User: What shape does this take?
Amino acid sequence: MPDTAAERTLGILLVAASAAVFGLTGVLTKSIHADPLTITCWRGFVGSILITLYVLWRRRQSGGRESLRLGWRGWLLASEGALASIAFISAFKFTFVANVAIIYATAPFVTALLAFILVRERSRLQTLAAAAVSLSGVAIMVWSGFGTGHLFGDGLALLMTIGSALYMIMVRAFRDTPVVWAGAVSAFLLFVLGWFVTDPLVVSARDAVLLVAFGTSFALASILWTEGARLIPAAESGLLGSAEVPFAILFAFLFLAEVPPAASMIGGAIVLCAVFAHGGRDWQAGRQRSA
Assistant: This one.
């Protein structure tokens, strides 16, 4: 919890900046000509190095109190996160950036549903209502993909969202696991997988520059979010993190001239209304409790 108004402002700026940087993922993926596994390999290589340096710096700041031991829980987190990342990057290659970003925005609601199914964790009525509204928006988007060639990409985005939801559930369940360090290991696993499955060195000079920029942006966004989330309440960081969706759509329009079809816009508007309404209620409730 922030000690001063200055710390809270800094936290807001850091999380908002993280959302903006994360919003570049679709643009960078579509701008790189290499295949998805090569992209994840380089993203994992550069990202793992930078995140590891951050983890070691954080550990030094805390006097070495933060453990780097993963155990089977940490390795499970890292492996599951790597698989979700592959689906995430691949999805951008087969559908609109807006579709991927909007489907991913439903992750909190998918998490709530899976948490109830797997661990019988009850959800609030407002969460269930928001989930029903957002999933109807996703249904409109996915239905419009039939016969257009984008259905496979939408399916990958749904798979990635389910994977991210499982990741969130495990993070809550494995409270003694160093999550950021598991993220660095997850990124490195992507590098190892890509190295054995594809040939990451066979890329153009242009792609190499973009791949390094992609890995750097991934690490930067992760670090900004981690630092910012330390300074503001969870509900506020969640609400600000949702800004990644409009950033992704805006950047796709500006840099790729990508305009999604009307069904994606309608479905996306429904999802965003549900996400921001739900997040806004949580944020308002938090302010009232702290008042």
Remarks:
- The two ends are 14 Å apart (CA to CA).
